[in-house]
Design brief:
about 575 residues, alpha/beta, Rossmann fold, 24 helices
């Protein structure tokens, strides 16, 4: 069989429903084979970065590795930001790049390039992939494909890259039986049970325990298991930015988001807790603040993670278990009876903190539209949505603080890479993965302009995206940083930066657009956004340029000390 035909067949047999690409000479064999087989949808993007972000979203939403293709040279290098996003946010993905013919590769010659667009993408991508290989031997191709899919799914999920020369793609190869890739399990059941016995003993002495969940819960596909685990223990749950969607908004055990821009009551709850169970979170600086000793304090901390290096890394003195969360929950739930303990006083204390510090009061004096209130009202109107896909910036924090997610809604954002431009292409991938349900996309004016060209992909594929652009006419998060540390010198965030009228831009793509500017227009605006759930629409939400994201951990202070009530003691470096 022709190698490219085998790749097309293999992708179909892995359950891959679509691939994302921007056409180029070195992937023409692949595109033709996938087209002729007719079993995998080809989605043509307008930038390879968009293809990578779309694949990232599909991997997160389905648990099947998302797939993006790119030609050699600039096509391959344009994938890198999206590959990094998959790596840092644990998204299973396989990236296939075309390479020049084997006789056009420079090999060990002391030259920069032999073939046109020849680029050593494997060496460039290795630090941000779980594996990256140049497949120069056609006979190796079936094994490498199988290995790529299994590796992408196993342990902590992530991206794998295969670089395939054009003459290898058109070579004839022997075709082995194709096996569906399955993740390799990580963790010893006996160690899980021993860890749980130790944890249950500690819980007996605890009065204020919390479960802290991160993006690893969704990466492992363990959202339902986490909910059962929390209910059986009776322990309330705080979440990182990457786990906003793990518990529905109305869950009695849901506390809220912690971290740099976390809900004030959630950060205060962390400060008051006496025991933390950390599942699928790496406890990075945006969760804990800079003072890790104060974060750990005297409380016991039990940490489960697929990667040993993430435990006792920044926060030390933890009881640890290396296991993937599928293995952990499978055996942890076996040792738990129905709920016996209810921490009623602790839950009442958390409820009081929330009533004292509501998210909608953080910006109570803001002129014009209060973004936290807007997010709540957007949620109320968006019950039909399968997911919210959120870009990077201040709007990302307002959304994470205030979206009211239901039990069947997801929330995707770019966490570790923190890349502006993520939301629109990722929303395209999400919409294809959850069709025919609509998807809400939320971006700021800065991030939206990074991949605005993908509006045409939305139109061509008739995707029901409900696009919200929070426009404060500035790069708001960095402008806030400049306000704090650079005496309000707003170079390149406000000075030397501007935005178009996004509602009019949408109309140019044949997408209906609408703008709101005042609080009394919110309900009308979100109702307009959903006037036809089957079609894309763009709502531009004008927000005051100088509105800050609060609360914010005062850098150099404990997690319980938040701006604007406390001031930073040092300049933050992240």
């Amino acid at each position: 069989m022709k190698a490219s035909d085998y790749i097309a067949q293999f992708l179909s047999e892995q359950g891959v429903a679509c691939v994302f690409e921007l056409s180029g000479g070195m992937i023409t064999h692949l595109l033709d084979s996938i087209y002729c087989l007719g079993k995998v949808r080809i989605v043509s993007m307008h930038h390879e970065q968009g293809a990578a972000f779309a694949a990232d979203a599909v991997g997160r939403m389905t648990g099947i590795p998302g797939v993006a293709l790119a030609t050699s040279g600039p096509g391959a290098t344009n994938l890198l930001t999206g590959i990094g996003s998959c790596y840092f946010d644990s998204s299973p993905a396989v990236f296939i790049t075309g390479q020049v013919n084997r006789n056009e590769q420079k090999g060990n010659r002391a030259i920069r390039q032999l073939g046109f667009q020849e680029t050593d993408i494997v060496s460039i991508a290795k630090p941000i992939t779980k594996g990256a290989w140049l497949v120069n031997d056609p006979a190796e191709l079936p094994t490498r494909l199988q290995e790529a899919f299994e590796l992408a799914l196993s342990g902590r999920p992530g991206p794998v890259l295969l670089d395939i020369p054009m003459d290898v793609q058109r070579a004839e190869i022997a075709v082995p039986p194709t096996l569906r890739a399955e993740p390799r399990q990580l963790g010893d059941p006996a160690e899980v049970r021993a860890f749980m016995q130790q944890l249950l003993g500690a819980l007996q002495a605890s009065q204020r325990p919390l479960i802290l969940v991160g993006g690893g819960i969704r990466a492992a596909g363990m959202g339902e298991a986490l909910r059962e685990f929390a209910v059986k223990l009776g322990v309330p749950v705080v979440n990182s930015l990457m786990a906003v969607d793990v518990l529905p908004f109305d869950s009695p055990l849901r506390v809220g988001m912690i971290g740099s821009y976390g809900n004030r009551w959630a950060n205060l709850s962390i400060g008051a807790s006496d025991l933390l169970i950390v599942l699928g979170s790496r406890l990075d600086i945006r969760q804990t603040g800079a003072l890790t000793e104060e974060f750990k304090d005297r409380r016991e901390l039990f940490h489960v993670d697929a990667e040993s290096g993430e435990m006792n890394n920044r926060v030390t003195g933890c009881y640890t278990l290396q296991a993937d969360l599928r293995t952990f929950f499978t055996h942890a739930l076996d040792v738990l009876d129905e709920q016996k303990t209810v921490y009623r006083e602790w839950l009442d204390e958390i409820r009081k903190l929330r009533a004292q510090h509501p998210d909608t009061a953080e910006l109570r004096d803001v002129p014009g539209i209060n973004p936290n209130i807007f997010m709540h009202r957007l949620s109320a109107a968006s019950q039909a949505a399968s997911a919210y896909v959120v870009d990077v910036g201040q709007h990302q924090m307002w959304a994470a603080q205030s979206l009211d997610l239901t039990s069947d809604q997801r929330c995707l954002t770019s966490g570790g890479m923190g890349s502006m431009g993520f939301a629109l292409p990722a929303a395209i991938g999400t919409a294809l993965a959850t069709a025919p349900r609509p998807v809400v996309m939320i971006a700021g004016d800065g991030g939206f302009q990074c991949n605005i060209q993908e509006l045409q992909t939305v139109v061509r594929n008739k995707l029901p995206l409900k696009i919200v652009v929070v426009n404060n006419r500035t790069h708001g998060m960095v402008r806030q940083f400049q306000e704090s540390y650079f005496e309000a010198r707003y170079q390149s965030t406000l000075w030397g930066y501007d935005t178009p009228d996004f509602a009019r831009v949408a109309e140019a793509y044949n997408i209906t657009g609408h703008t709101i500017t005042e609080m009394n227009e919110i309900d009308e605006g979100v109702t307009w956004l959903w006037h036809d759930p089957t079609k894309p629409a763009l709502l531009q939400v004008m927000v005051d340029t100088y509105v800050n994201s609060y609360p914010k951990i005062a850098f150099g202070q404990p997690i319980t000390c938040m701006e604007p009530d406390f001031q930073p003691l040092d300049m933050e470096g992240t």
